[in-house]
Specification:
1 helix; three-stranded antiparallel beta sheet; mainly beta; 10% helix; SH3 type barrels; globular
């Protein structure tokens, strides 16, 4: 099971590398900027970048850390998924 500290390693990586959080039910959330994720002890909040201005979050999702199945780095050339079901 992932911990808050595991998730913080992805957020704090230098240089930052985009990553994808996949939940146990298959939802995917792409983190394209370290400012778009807030890590708490039990939950994370992922801000989804706006298509018009990626530096602004269009919406956010709260995810329980035990519900996170995997975290994977994304290649630089991959298309970002904005929120579940909109890939």
């Amino acid at each position: 099971m992932l911990t808050a500290e595991d998730i913080l390693k992805y957020k704090k990586k230098t240089p930052f590398a985009r990553f994808r959080i996949t939940t146990v039910v298959g939802e995917r959330y792409d983190v394209s900027d370290p400012a778009h994720i807030m890590v708490g002890r039990r939950d994370i909040v992922v801000g989804i970048a706006c298509k018009i201005d990626p530096s602004i979050c269009d919406r956010s999702f709260r995810i329980s850390i035990p519900d996170v199945a995997t975290i994977t780095e994304l290649p630089h050339h991959s298309q970002t998924e904005f929120y579940p079901g909109y890939a």
